[in-house]
Amino acid sequence: GGTCGPVTTATSGTVTVDKSKPTLSTVLIESDNPYDNKIAGPGEEIIISITSSEAISLPVVTIDSESATVTQLTPTSYTASYSVLPGATEGTAAFTIDFADIAGNSGDQVTTFTTGGALSIVTTPYLISVTMLSDNSNDKLAKYNDEITITLISIIAIDSPTVTILSLPATVTQINSTSYTASVLVPSSPTQGFAGFTIDFDSVDGVSGTQVTAVTSGGAVKVDTAKPTLSSVVITSNNTNNDKIAGPDHLITISITSNEAISAPTVTILSQTVT
């Protein structure tokens, strides 16, 4: 038989030559923290959203020096997720993204976001909301046996906090991993004035936050268990001859002055309720 020479022309199909490096057009880092998606605490998930300039193979991603779980959305879109570990180092979350296109051309490793800003890993808890109310009809006042309740929210998950109100240990109830209420009943002889309190709390990893002694909004509840008194009670009539005598059709008036603000009093004159 004869000898075949070199083939220089394909008999069918074409081959596309791609020597260009792929690039990432979008790199966005966020968390599932319910209050701030630029903060992540232990147990919370960090998610990096990636969009490439062309189809790429599954990228290799690390977050906080740990391997991330990568999920393909489209040939050019991926997410990488990682749950913050106990004992993580507090600070800006570092990451790396290594990737290549389907031709095998490697892109330059990416370590910075393109949009949305950096994300911080937080391991020291702090309270982002502390409010105080009472079950009095005026929820900013409390008398004997009224219940005062503090609602507190931490930026990251915390264990059940230790709370005192009016120097008494409060009953603490968990709402979720970051939110709690703490309540006490006003005793018979508390310190009068705005209700003092303390909140001590630790993250689920045992890192202590700074003790909190002030509300973040709405003001504190004012405790008042002292009985009001009337400093002046004056009764007169509209009798023009003698305002201390009242006959038929004369109007009797009682003028009252109290030592503190009071609700509208109930007054009877001659066994009749008056206004």
Descriptive overview:
The chain has 275 residues and is mostly beta strands. Helices cover 0% and strands 40% of the residues. The protein is built from no helices and 24 strands. A hairpin with a 2-residue loop joins strand 14 and strand 15. The radius of gyration is 36 Å and the shape is elongated. The relative contact order is 0.13. The mean pLDDT is 92.
Short description:
By secondary structure, the chain is mostly beta strands. The protein has no helices and 24 strands.
Question: How would you describe this structure in keywords?
Answer:
24 strands, mainly beta, 275 residues, 4-stranded antiparallel beta sheet, 40% strand, single chain
Helix content: under 10%
Mean model confidence by pLDDT = 92
Gap between N and C termini: 128 Å
Strand percentage? 35-45%
- Tell me the Rg in angstroms: 36 Å
- Structural class, judged by helices and strands? mainly beta
Blueprint (SSEs and pairs):
Layout: E1 24-31, E2 39-40, E3 45-52, E4 60-63, E5 66-67, E6 69-74, E7 77-83, E8 91-92, E9 95-98, E10 120-121, E11 127-134, E12 141-142, E13 147-154, E14 162-165, E15 168-169, E16 171-174, E17 179-185, E18 193-194, E19 197-200, E20 222-223, E21 230-237, E22 252-258, E23 267-269, E24 272-274
Parallel strand pairs: 2-10, 12-20
Antiparallel strand pairs: 1-3, 3-7, 4-5, 4-9, 6-7, 8-10, 11-13, 13-17, 14-15, 14-19, 16-17, 18-20, 21-22, 23-24
